[in-house]
Task: structure prediction
Amino acid sequence: MSEEYFATLKFPVKIAGIAENKSLSSQSVDEVQLNLKGQGWQLAQLTFGLSPDFIINSKNNLGEQTVPLRNEIESNSWLSSSIQVLSINPEKIIFNIENITQKKVKIEPDIDLEFKPNYGLVSDIIVSPDSVIIRGPESLITKIGKVFTEKKEFKDSDRNVLESISLEKINFVEMSQEQTAIKFDVQKIVDKTFENILVEILGVPASRQLVLYPAKVDIVLRGGINLLGKLNSSDIRAYVYFSQAISDTSGGIVPYFEIPAFTAIIDKIPNKLEYIIKQF
Result:
């Protein structure tokens, strides 16, 4: 393979000579295509063996730079004098170098949840750690408000999840960690009735009294089977305001409820309360 041959090969671009407190913020091309002429064994090494970077010297300058790629051939010692570069595509590269800054931002999980029939989410989605330090060129870092995880789908979920997920990479930006953990609880969804919840009466003037009929209500909640199993009527708050009775025109007022997280009201018995206003 001592005869001369032609080959068209692509090589990744690497910008060299950047100080530690500076960073690339943009780069017009990631690879260059060289049309080469050389001895067969030399071209075979580049084709099947070595896969060198095409080095471009930034000279540690700040700002946008436009560099003709043919001027960088001498910076690439792997292009020996016996290999002739006939053409380079593209002919130039444009890149920008900035000062580096860093800050801490929140991690946002990018997940899709699908549950088995009659199952559902019964907890917050916890991300741990929930933040990451990002480091890179000022123009990019100032625009980043949060970092996302890679897209993850959870299908037919019927049990608790604790899983590591990689963070989505951002060009020219370094992160203090590459992964985070996602945790959430899944349970079978059922209904449960809570009885004899005393209805509080709020905002009653000193000279008035509001009497409710009935004074207690029942409520049907929907939620996770284990979650509902730990609750009792004292975990649910029911209340009305005296002003509701003053403005009522239907003969009944609807109580408000405060219920535990990840539960939903399915029914209230009764839905409306009759009342009498007494004055002293």
The two ends are 114 Å apart (CA to CA). The mean pLDDT is 92. The chain has three domains: 4-98, 100-187, 189-279.
